[in-house]
Automatic annotation (TrEMBL):
Protein's organism: Pedobacter caeni
PANTHER family associated with the record: OSMC-LIKE PROTEIN, PROTEIN INVOLVED IN RIMO-MEDIATED BETA-METHYLTHIOLATION OF RIBOSOMAL PROTEIN S12 YCAO
One Pfam family cited in the UniProt record for this chain: OsmC
Protein name: Uncharacterized OsmC-related protein
InterPro entries, per the entry: KH_dom-like_a/b (IPR015946), OsmC/Ohr_fam (IPR003718), OsmC/Ohrsf (IPR036102)
Length: 134
């Protein structure tokens, strides 16, 4: 079964439907690339997927090791390069709730974040700058 079905709606906008759930994501080309910028751009989703994946894998590891990251957030900053136009860096800034994480918990958090499937799938030339704030 396909993961998603994407329809080009015109006006540099697409709608992606998750085949299993029916959930939708709309993308727009960014303003600096002839778009409206009214929704995530495809490159925004690429960068955001890194944070989503890291938080998910950290959540799995936390559950397996008996601690919680509920309420943790990460902010994503996407940095573009030109010629060719591409994402050159993704900055991920984690903020964890004020739980008393042990040094062991912090190592688990940081190791699992860096080994998420999206992080490991991105080209090594795409810089991943990750910070953890506890």
């Amino acid at each position: 079964m396909a993961t998603s079905k994407i329809t080009y709606n015109g006006g540099l906008r697409t709608t992606s439907v998750h085949e299993r759930s029916g959930n939708e994501i709309i993308t727009d080309a960014p303003i600096d690339n002839k778009g409206k910028g009214e929704a995530f751009s495809p490159t925004d989703l690429l960068a955001t997927s890194l944070g989503n994946c890291m938080l998910t894998i950290v959540g799995i590891a936390a559950n397996e090791h008996g601690f919680s990251i509920d309420g943790a957030t990460c902010e994503i900053t996407k940095i573009m390069a030109e010629n060719p136009r591409r994402v050159s860096e993704i900055v991920v800034n984690f903020q964890f709730p004020s739980n008393a994480y042990s040094d062991k918990d912090k190592k688990i958090i940081e190791r699992s974040a860096h080994t998420c499937p999206v992080a490991l799938s991105l080209h090594p030339d795409l810089k991943q700058t990750v910070s953890f704030n506890y």
